[in-house]
Write a structure and sequence with these properties.
Residues 16-291 form the NADP-dependent oxidoreductase domain. By secondary structure, the chain is an alpha/beta fold. The protein has twelve helices and ten strands.
């Protein structure tokens, strides 16, 4: 496993993050998963307040080795549906959810706290100031944002820079060969602001792991788009002598993002970890990215066309190497 720095911090995080949403009991298999991940060099565990008993299970399994991991959880969804203030991104919901998460995880601090989703009813100024307060208290070390528009994250980090608050170091988005929407605005924004990207749903519910390409598999409601991409990943994997999941995950990592893998067995996790360090040939990448259509849309397609236009930047535009 290799490591990258989280955003503009000095925190080292592994190529692959381990998602624990499916951990609803401290079973022997969950322990094997954690052991296999640690042995591979993985160090980021991702959970959330709304993932059932996941936080409690993670807390139990980490007893005696909590400091070995970058422990991350999320808040926003309500922790009490009868209380209108028990959810959202306002200060009260943050404090209440954080205290509950710390108790469940059996720790006195979180390495990374994610805002789970954009709350349109709470001013981003309140959220950022409240996050900075819990960082200053020592209960949280770094913060990140999940499932929000690029303009909001940009505004949030600009406010943080101006006011001396803690900025978002990470961004969680759905991202895979089958779901590339983040390339329109979110990934360019993250690169420009120095924010690390974590990709959830990297294997598209198993489609990109070849799950529906095996004898006897039930494809269910898969459309031709999913089938075409699934075939392309399996074909490239066969040519390279690796698995389909490794190809799909390696593609994400080559784009600069950290896949959040939610393996159900230690063997499956070891296979996923094999994607770390796998370099896909350029020809294979072209085949994968052309297997199904993707339209970057406006403004990216328009700006990229203008960027090489002599009518806009003069005849020397093709001689400019950029940064």
């Amino acid at each position: 496993m290799r490591y990258r720095l989280l955003g503009r911090t000095g925190l080292r995080v592994s190529d692959l993050f381990l998602g624990t949403m499916g951990w609803q009991e401290a079973s022997p298999e969950a322990r094997r998963l954690l052991d296999a991940y640690a042995e591979s060099g993985g160090n980021v565990l991702d959970t959330a307040a709304m993932y059932g008993d996941s936080e409690s299970v993670v807390g139990e399994l980490l007893q005696g080795r909590r400091d070995r991991f970058v422990l991350a959880t999320k808040y926003t969804p309500t922790i009490d549906r009868t209380d209108p203030n028990a959810g959202g991104n306002h200060r009260r919901a943050l404090v209440r959810s954080l205290e509950q998460s710390l108790r469940r995880l059996r720790t006195d601090y979180l390495d990374l706290l994610w805002v789970h989703v954009w709350d349109r009813h709470t001013p981003i100024e309140e959220t950022m100031r409240a996050l900075d307060d819990v960082v200053r208290s020592g209960k949280v070390l770094y913060v990140g944002m999940s499932d929000a528009p690029a303009w909001l994250v940009s505004q949030a980090n600009t406010l943080a820079d101006w006011r001396g608050w803690t900025p978002f170091a990470g961004l969680q988005v759905p991202y895979s060969l089958l779901r590339r929407d983040a390339e329109r605005e979110l990934l360019p924004m993250a690169r420009a602001l120095g924010i690390s990207v974590a990709a959830w749903g990297p294997l598209a519910h198993g489609v990109l792991a070849g799950r529906y390409d095996t004898p006897g598999a039930v494809a269910g409601d898969l459309g031709e788009r999913e089938r075409a991409m699934g075939r392309a990943v399996v074909e490239v994997a066969g040519e390279l002598g690796v698995t389909a999941a490794q190809v799909a995950l390696a593609w994400i990592m080559a784009r600069g993002a950290h896949p959040i893998v939610g393996a159900s067995t230690a063997e499956q996790l070891k296979d996923d970890v094999g994607a770390s360090g796998l370099a896909l040939p350029e020809e294979a990448v072209r085949r994968l990215e052309s297997a199904v259509p993707f339209d970057p849309g406006f403004p990216r397609d328009f700006v990229e066309a203008v960027d090489i236009s002599p009518e806009v930047y003069g005849d020397a535009v093709h001689l400019l190497d950029g940064r």
